[in-house]
Amino acid sequence: MSHDETAAHPDQPAQSTTYAAAGVDVEAGDRAVELMKSAVSATHNANVVGGVGGFAGLFDVSVLKDYRRPLLATSTDGVGTKVAIAQALDKHDTIGFDLVGMVVDDIIVCGAKPLFMTDYIACGKVHAERIAAIVRGIAEACAQADVALVGGETAEHPGLLGVDEYDVAGAATGVVDAENLLGPEKVDAGDVLIALPSSGIHSNGYSLVRHIIAEAGWTLDREVPEFGRSLGEELLVPTHVYTGELNALFSALPGAVHAVSHVTGGGLSANVARVLPPGLVAAMSRDSWEVPAVFSVLGDLGGVPRADRERTWNLGVGMVLVTAASAVDEVLTATPGSWVLGEVRTDDGSLAGELDYVQGAKGVDGGAAILR
């Protein structure tokens, strides 16, 4: 169903009851579409067939004929409980960046270029301006990543969600030639780990964040000196979308990057370990960067042990590039703000007994990682 429709699933409304009386406002959905239409259309390129409002988004994939062996990459995700912060602050134009970052940045890690995306918004009541603000944020992030937003769904679920509640999700598809696929098969001992900075908490660990501030009695309008702004403003900083800059990096320095890890749920070590092959370990140094204040303030406020911080939050590292040693200087120059996080070594078993050693994370029987 497209953004110009709303859907609800009442059990068995009485025959004399209207859809509006059941809590579904179709006209509000139509108003939301009109408000978001120009932002969505701005993401469309020559490959998008048709406009906004179709039952399905159409994308011309004639470009795939130029690939020797095109592999399609797909990803789907949401934003988690960060939407609760947006709802509490009544600010909805940045949550779209979180959604796009969580979806398309999972595609770019294998070297694939994301082509198009669709979104899904479920809400208790359609507030046209609010829905339009969410989708505008999604569209702006898609434009930044050079990804077409080809369709979406806005569903009104009265009785299931509160009138001011909503959740968002999205899915994207990309393509990579098999010979350019990034991953464990290309990683070897001696490769160097280069970290790209996060913009903050991004979209993981907000259940812990919300528990901490609730237990401490902190309100979102509390001014926090370490942040230089309110708690709410800090928590709503949008996820950095890396796809655009990584696309440019892969084009400028082909073969320089062997694998990429998107640091999301599970933290730094678990996500780096999953892009290494068995027999190798990513040895990373904690003193190679300064952890941003938001993590230390919240961690200290909640008495969160270091191990829990490291497996819940990104701690300031948004992406890790596993890079050929010969290309380190070029990659650092091409990615402002990046730094050398560590290196890939042969795993001789000497680190396996250490507390921070992680192996076989995220269901992948792969390599290992350790923060020391």
TrEMBL record:
Protein name: Phosphoribosylformylglycinamidine cyclo-ligase
Gene: purM
Annotated catalysed reactions: 2-formamido-N(1)-(5-O-phospho-beta-D-ribosyl)acetamidine + ATP = 5-amino-1-(5-phospho-beta-D-ribosyl)imidazole + ADP + phosphate + H(+)
NCBIfam families xrefs: purM (TIGR00878)
Name of the top EC class for this enzyme: ligase
Main location: cytoplasm
Signal peptide positions (record): none
Domain PurM-like C-terminal span(s) in chain numbering: 189-348
